[in-house]
Write a structure and sequence with these properties.
Elements: H1 2-23, H2 32-38, H3 41-55, H4 68-83, H5 86-104
Helix pairs in contact: 4-5
Length: about 100
């Protein structure tokens, strides 16, 4: 029982610490450089989540031809850069992944 109270309490502390930044601050008073830097937070977090799954599919770094996820991910990034739509990157990335996996078998 005490472990659950500890988990709930630590979750509440983390939530309140993060919520205080949003609730008690005025974004208009942030310095311009800080506001510009905040625009890069979502892409950085997304890259930190996605890149290990692409480059390390089995827990070790795999750069060779035996890693179709990496090459499909690179093609998806190129599609996102070229057409700037999420659906294009999903379609190109999944299509490339399925094609590379079919070729590898």
């Amino acid at each position: 029982m005490s472990i659950w109270l500890l988990i709930l309490a630590s979750g509440a502390v983390v939530f309140l610490a993060r919520a205080s930044f949003i609730v008690f601050s005025d974004p208009a008073r942030f310095p311009p450089g800080f506001r510009r830097a905040l625009a890069f937070v979502p892409p950085a977090v997304l890259a930190a989540i996605v890149l290990p799954g692409l480059a390390m599919p089995h827990g070790t770094l795999a750069w060779g031809l035996d890693n179709p996820r990496l090459y499909a991910g690179l093609l998806a990034m190129l599609a996102a850069w070229r057409w700037r739509t999420p659906i294009s990157s999903i379609a190109v990335g999944m299509g490339a992944l399925w094609a590379l996996q079919a070729l590898g078998r």
